[in-house]
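Quick check before the chapter quiz. The format below is the same one you will see on the exam, so make sure you can read both the input and the output lines.
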Amino acid sequence: MEIRPASGLCIEQDGSRGEWIVFVQGLGGHSGFWQQQIAAFKDDNRVVTHDHAGIGKSCAAPARRSVSTMAQDVIDVMDAVGAKRAHVVGHSMGGLIAQELALNWPHRIESLVIGASFARPSNYIRLLLEFRLKILRDLGPAAYCRFQALSGIPPELFEADLNAVLCREKRSLAATSNVDAVAGRILAILDFDRSADLASIRIPTLVLAAKDDTFVPLEESRRLAEGIEGARFEVFESGGHFFPQYLSPAYCSTVKAFLNCAS
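Here is the expected output.
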């Protein structure tokens, strides 16, 4: 079911029973990232996704927005569907948004699942993001999406199913047409730093990472988990940065097991 509140965000709700789960994707901003997770969770949960402002079917927004503002969007999404509390599953930049939600709206959050994320950009992540921003601005969205695929997807997957990789790149390109919106989200990530506040999070948390993630190195996710009291940390052997898509069965099984314990 598609919902369009006054904010102009395009919201999708699937499932009619069980607890609320809000999935928040990363820098790409398109809710289609969670297609496999929606299918896996909707029978027993009420699943909510949304296109980020300025992406997909959502209305345009000021190009320069903070992670905190994007977290407010998630609260608006929850209000629009009537979810007083929800489990929040965030990937990459969605993990930054999840941290912001836990710190500013803890009474609305049942638990957190944070994948391929960090509390502040390390020097490596900062240089990588600045380079991606330069590619986006100087070479355009097509070059940006090709670099994203080559850097974020394990090489063996190109050999196993090149068509699937190229289809994903095509979908990514469609979501990157608004260069200013994507650039604004990169700048928001570069400005983000919640490393001093992690100890204040008192919500059941699972942090996930992949050993071969070159966008967010394993140790960055480990440091995030170590900063949140009681957080669980689990590592996938492969999957690259986009492991929720390329390891969907294992990813969904891990998340379901955690949510069952956190409920």
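If your answer matched, good. Residues 11 and 50 are 4 Å apart (CA to CA).
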